[in-house]
Amino acid sequence: MLEVRDVDVTYGDIQALWGVSFSVRKGEMVALVGSNGAGKSTVLRTLSGVQKPRKGTITVEGTRSDTVDAHKVVELGVSLVPEGRRLFRDMTILENLELGGYIGRARKVKEEHLEWVFQMFPVLKQRISQLAGTLSGGEQQMLAIARALMSDPKLLLVDELSLGLAPIIVKNIYKTLREINKSRNVTILVVEQNVRLALEVADRAYVIENGRITMEGAGKELLASEAIKSAYLAIG
Amino acid sequence: MKSKLGIASFVLLMIFAPLLIKSEYLLNLLILICLYATLSHSWNILGGYCGQISLGHATFFGAGALTFRYLWLGGVSYYLALPAGALASLILAFAIGFPSFKMKGHYFSIGTLALAMIALITVQNLLPGVSFITEACLKEYSLLTIYYLAFGVGVATVAAVYALSRSKLGLALVSVREDEEAAEAIGINTFKYKVVAMSISTVIAGFAGGIFAFYCGTYYHYAPFELGWSFDPLLIAFIGGAGTVVGPVVGAVVFVLLKELFAASLGQVNVLIFGIVFIVTVLFLPKGLVGIAGIVRKKDRSART
């Protein structure tokens, strides 16, 4: 479903990604983990088309996505939940969701999608005309996910969802993501600093270090590996 | 329902206003208020709703004025010359305005300011003289006609902005203002919507320019290109409330009245007064005068949801 081949990304003179290659299969939930500044967010920004790679290719279900504008990438079925949520704070929940479902394909199924995301996150329905900026951190994260789902994505990219949230809330949101993945067959790629959590929940994971993919494997496998334990989990 | 009744009676009052007030001076003030409200709304669509702070609206205002003047003095009737001016303004926007979207944020503002200065200097050099009204046109010149034209264009503009503010299109424009990258990342074609906002905005600026050229009997050709026509609409929008339907109208009333008050007594120093008013508004009333009421946005919302 998603094929990333040999991608280099540079910010001016600074190279952030070096020959990054990985793939996500249909229906999977894959995690990309790594420490601060490893290049995780750059990968997602590049996948969503906001950042253009200097070299390499990205294909979504066989269609090149690295050469088109970011808003066209959404039409290919890729939707991003950005780092820090990036909601339209002075707009209501409903307005945020309407904008999420703005593209042509999504408009036809808007009502059905609204019902679906409200079922996933009932708290959003209760506060439908409240301004997004007035929601709590966890609710804002839910709204960011719901907004991304409104575009009817085949692939959902989630950037650092645990940022600034209480562990219990993070756990619940991950549970919901897993449910979305299973019940609606939405393929999900999460980027996460909380390595243990990500490896527990994902089918497969890639480890990124200094802009390069250094390890890959099933979540549980990586969780058991010595290298991961010592580098990220502070055990052993 | 109540507010609809209020608006209807206000419009009726304005229609019959010239019959009630016999003073030409007051009629002049009303024309100016309509003119400034229209121009300010033109800026408001692009700057207030879409978040693209233009400092070059004089270019489009001037293009409308120049076109109107040439056609009208050349024998075309004013009701044809007016939309022609708006069209010229739009064409100019397509030719030189849209490339400025390659620049973002402050660079866009500076870029459009440069555009306005280039336009001003060009017109100053190509048409250094004064535009006189011809005898034939003098027969068509009537304050009453101009008032109804300015008022009609003003009402149409406010109605258009009102419709825009409630539409899906308006929502997309505001999303560009709020967070352009986030908008792009959820599938909003931000460039397209900026172009749409610019198109509507410049058409309205062209209409306003045409009214100016109709209203002012004799003026230097470059007068409508002067930088004040770029800064005043911004000032008015911020004083009244940028990104609102009512704001620029309230702002225009305050602006014209204050200008009348101070221009006569203080001369050029009145520019200073507006500088101070602007700073005070930005510091203490970030939502403008309509922000004091605090009801505008809320009302908008409850109606939509």
Topology readout:
The complex is a heterodimer of chains A (236) and B (305).
Chain A: E1 2-11, E2 14-24, E3 29-33, H1 40-47, E4 55-60, E5 63-64, H2 70-75, E6 78-81, H3 93-100, H4 104-107, H5 110-120, H6 122-126, H7 137-149, E7 155-159, H8 167-183, E8 187-192, H9 195-201, E9 204-209, E10 212-218, H10 219-224, H11 226-232
Parallel strand pairs in A: 3-8, 3-9, 6-7, 7-8
Antiparallel strand pairs in A: 1-2, 1-4, 4-5, 9-10
Helix pairs in contact in A: 3-7
Chain B: H1 2-20, H2 24-49, H3 57-73, H4 78-97, H5 106-126, E1 130-131, H6 135-140, H7 143-166, H8 168-178, H9 180-185, H10 190-215, E2 219-220, H11 228-240, H12 247-266, H13 270-284, H14 289-293, H15 296-304
Antiparallel strand pairs in B: 1-2
Helix pairs in contact in B: 1-7, 2-7, 2-10, 2-11, 2-12, 3-4, 3-10, 3-11, 4-10, 7-8, 7-10, 8-10, 11-12, 12-13
Count the DSSP helices of chain A: 11
What is the assembly state of the chains in this entry? heterodimer
By CATH, the topology of the domain at 22-225 in chain B is ABC transporter involved in vitamin B12 uptake, BtuC
Helix content class of chain A: 25-40%
By DSSP, the count of extended strands of chain B is 2
Cα-to-Cα separation, first versus last residue of chain A? 37 Å
The helix content of chain B is: over 70%
The succession of helices and strands of chain A, N to C, reads EEEHEEHEHHHHHEHEHEEHH
Structural class label of chain A: alpha/beta
| CATH class designation of the domain at 22-225 in chain B | Mainly Alpha
Describe it for me?
The complex is a heterodimer of chains A (236) and B (305). Chain A has 236 residues and is α/β, with parallel strands linked by helices. Chain A has one domain: P-loop containing nucleotide triphosphate hydrolases (Rossmann fold), CATH 3.40.50. Helices cover 39% and strands 26% of the residues of chain A. Chain A is built from eleven helices and ten strands. In chain A, strand 7 (155-159), helix 8 (167-183) and strand 8 (187-192) form a beta-alpha-beta unit. In chain A, helix 3 (93-100) packs parallel to helix 7 (137-149). Chain B contains 15 helices and two strands. Chain B is globular, with a radius of gyration of 19 Å. The chains are: A alpha/beta (236), B mainly alpha (305). Chain A binds chain B through residues 48-50, 69-71, 74-75, 79-80, 82, 86-92, 94-95, 98-100, 102-103, 106, 128-129, 147-148, 150-151, and chain B through 168, 171-172, 174-175, 178-179, 181-191, 301-302, 304-305.
